[in-house]
């Protein structure tokens, strides 16, 4: 079962399913875990990866919080969700830029998921009225 399916099953989603938001939540969940893993890998590197660790951890936390709010269909806080998606997209771009500065496979993969997630966040934010 996918998280998209779970969101679509919520009683408040009937007739109001937002595919762009569901796609963003899906990527946000993965991005949070990829950033956490990258931060851990960066800590094991012999070079100073302090900034990359910091941005990966911050990105993970923001993605996690954004995913949690994006999952909630009960009630309505669309303006805040839109702002959070926009913030999260910026954080993902910043994390990706930092990861792309390093020649480590874990950073390359983290940068890729962060770029995908940033794009999904932008699409989801634009889809919220």
From TrEMBL:
Top-rank taxon, per record: Bacteria
Coiled-coil annotated residue ranges, if any: none
Pfam family, one: Csp
Listed name of the protein: Four-helix bundle copper-binding protein
UniProt organism field: Sphingomonas cremea
